[in-house]
Design a protein that fits this description.
This protein has a single domain, classed as Rhopdopsin 7-helix transmembrane proteins. It is built from eleven helices and no strands.
């Protein structure tokens, strides 16, 4: 099952790359920037969409402190680095998203999306380390980060050239979540609590639901918009990773670890 799972991961990755190349270009719809809650508070435009990014900042700081400290559970200290980069991405997302929501347009959206790709790619690599091969996950970290950044830079360059193509970025984001779910299903972790990855996926889906129904949720009493709720729901996903890192334990030698993972852990 493990070996078959690795090949499935490789196949899905290849299909995503082909799709990003072949699917027709699509510019960023300008309507994307029209959020339901544009209320000003304390002199800040779009206040709740800006302020709700505090949730990302809090989780990012907590996750960095945890992953760099002694409370996170790693068999080998070097395994912490994909998680460190992940929480750096979460913290930078707080700043980038707040900046974007102060004046939403394509130019500021770039600074929202760039740190998000850092978080997505680092989380994928962390799970390759945990579930497939330690060396491979660490070796892929920098190339995956560059790939994520390239997708966002490519989108920005094409928008500035009036030939916008947001599809590679969209496919990259979808691929990240799909590959995480796939690894959770077909490649068991070396650690307990590996199923916390399902919580990450679940909170991500809930955040997308809130984002889709931004206006409808705002219309329910004019209290809070779907996009504000999206930020809060999305911030709970990295909080689930924090919980996993503090409570998990290494599966004991002699248990049903896949051979490839045993080999990686022994190096």
């Amino acid at each position: 099952m493990h070996r078959r799972g690795v090949w499935i991961v490789i196949a899905i990755s290849a299909l995503a790359a082909v799709a990003a190349w072949l699917i027709p270009a699509m510019p960023q719809p300008l309507a994307y920037h029209d959020f339901a809650d544009d209320r000003q508070m304390f002199g800040v435009e779009n206040f709740l969409d800006v302020a709700s990014n505090i949730a990302f900042a809090l989780v990012g700081v907590a996750g960095l402190s945890l992953s760099l400290g002694r409370h996170a559970r790693f068999q080998y200290s070097i395994e912490r680095w994909p998680y460190v980069v992940f929480f750096v991405g979460v913290l930078l997302t707080a700043a980038g998203s707040a900046y974007y929501h102060l004046a939403p347009d394509n130019e500021t959206l770039f600074w929202d999306r760039l740190p998000m790709t850092i978080a997505f790619m680092a989380l994928v690599c962390s799970q390759i380390v945990d579930r497939i091969n330690v060396r491979a996950g660490l070796a892929l970290l920098l190339p995956m980060l560059l790939l994520g950044a390239a997708a966002v830079v490519y989108w920005r360059v094409t928008e500035r050239a009036n030939a916008g193509n947001v599809m590679p970025y969209g496919i990259l984001q979808g691929y990240s979540m799909a590959i995480l779910l796939l690894m959770a299903v077909v490649t068991p972790s070396r650690y307990s609590l590996g199923n916390h990855l399902y919580w990450v996926f679940g909170w991500y889906l809930l955040s997308k639901f809130f984002e889709t129904f931004d206006t409808e949720l705002m219309d329910l009493g004019q209290v809070v918009s779907g996009h504000t709720l999206k930020h809060l729901a999305a911030a709970i996903a990295p909080a689930a990773i924090c919980l996993m890192l503090t409570r998990r334990t290494l599966i004991a030698p002699g248990s049903s670890l896949p051979q490839a993972i045993k080999w990686a852990a022994s190096d």
